[in-house]
Specification:
Blueprint (H helix, E strand, L loop, with lengths): L1 E5 L5 E2 L35 E6 L1
Antiparallel strand pairs: 1-2, 1-3
């Protein structure tokens, strides 16, 4: 499972934790996160995220 980091604000999406507050269950890989999901901190789309390494 790879983490992804928002290049705008630094938020790290971890598949281990998901984003439960926004409907993303733990265990969901970033590639499987819906395209309409946005960074919960700054609101940018998935295209602003880069791989940040293994979880």
């Amino acid at each position: 499972m790879e983490n992804y980091v928002c290049t705008v604000c630094g938020y790290v999406y971890s598949p281990k934790n998901g984003d439960v507050e926004n409907g993303i269950e733990p265990g969901m890989e970033f590639v499987d996160v819906p395209e309409n999901w946005v960074c919960p901190i700054c609101g940018v789309s998935k295209e602003y995220f880069e791989k940040a390494g293994q979880n």
